[in-house]
Amino acid sequence: MGHIALLGMNHKTAPVEIREQLALACRSEAHPLQALPQLECVDELFVLSTCNRVELLFTCSTLQPAVREVKSVLRGQLGSTASSELDPYCYVYEDGEAVEHLFRVASSLDSMVIGEPQILGQIKAAYREATEYRSVGVILNRLLHKSFSVAKRVRSETRIGSLAVSISYAAVELARKIFGDLRDKRVLIIGAGEMAELAAEHLRAQGVHRMFVANRTLERAVELARQFKAESIPFPHILDTLKSVDIVITSTGSAEPILTHKDIKSRMRERRNRPLFFIDIAVPRDIESRVNEIDNVYLYDIDDLKGIVELNREERQKEAERAHHIIAEEGLKFRQWLSTLDVVPTIVALRRKAETIRRNELVKTFSHNPHFTPREKEALALLTEAIVKKLLHDPIVFLKKKSDRDTKQRFVDFAQQLFNLTAEAEMGASPLGTDETPYKPGMEAIEAREK
Q: Which of 35, 156, 187, 352 gets the highest tally of CB atoms within 10 A of its CB?
């Protein structure tokens, strides 16, 4: 049985300068997956590259030589020749630890912001890339698909993804709690910095279709509006836009309030007092606190949101504990599947031998009884197939149950000797040991052999 290993670095172990170099290199034309044919000790390879991590997941027969080869791929990406330059930043997980680490990453338990949803999409995109390079085989295919289902289970069985832990996310969550469905609401975003961009991203994820972006630098407003399919408006037209929107999120770098009590009160008359919600996530604040005194105007500032964030951070930590239990359980299931690969060649050989005997005996029977009708032949074929399946069921289940024991090779040897399978086992299964279902021809093939 070979090994599964993961070598990488992330926001906890490596400075941003190193991660930037690797992330850029992984997006260049010389993709690290192209190196797989030259790696003698690595069988399958998968590369995940994001702004916060670069990780290489691989399978191999001999671990240490394979780790050295994969590390050389990383050095090649950095253009560095000294392994010591990478060693302080890298971590290596082996077998069960590698499996559970991947599950944690996919479930966003290893992210800078626990529970953020983007990482799973990034893993799926990296997997599609790996399939294009044909660098993943049976084991990593199964492992990566398993990571998708584990992440889905964590999302559905815990609340880890439903609690806001960033100010921008908390702002959008607050708007959603106030209005419920946001899809028909009109939102004005004032400012075009990082927090405003994150707010726009979360609003789009909630289905908001009508967004307006205003910024002192028009070019940046246009850029953000294009990114999120919003409309840009000139900064001096903010007050006019207040007549038609439902939610205003402000995040500018202004030293003075950009919206005053007087400005907003005069616009409320034009709105016929329809409710207007302001969420001010700027420091210093963009909106005068007296705005809250206006009828049907509701103002929340960053202090209101910080309380939500801190409370949710504690709750997410509790949900993370439940998620870790799910990951440990799913990791055990995957390791049990992996351990069955050692007995698969023997199971395949046993099935193949029994199927060969069944077919040969049918051919003899049909040749000695030419009066059998096609329907009678089909009935005999189905009968013998059912008998073979029932006879093989118990020995196959027995072998699979022994597959996770240290003594499994002894049981494999016994089975091969008992059924005289040595030759069949050597030629029977694919190198990856996954071909559990033997080829079973239909009646046409049996009749062809008769002739």
A: 187
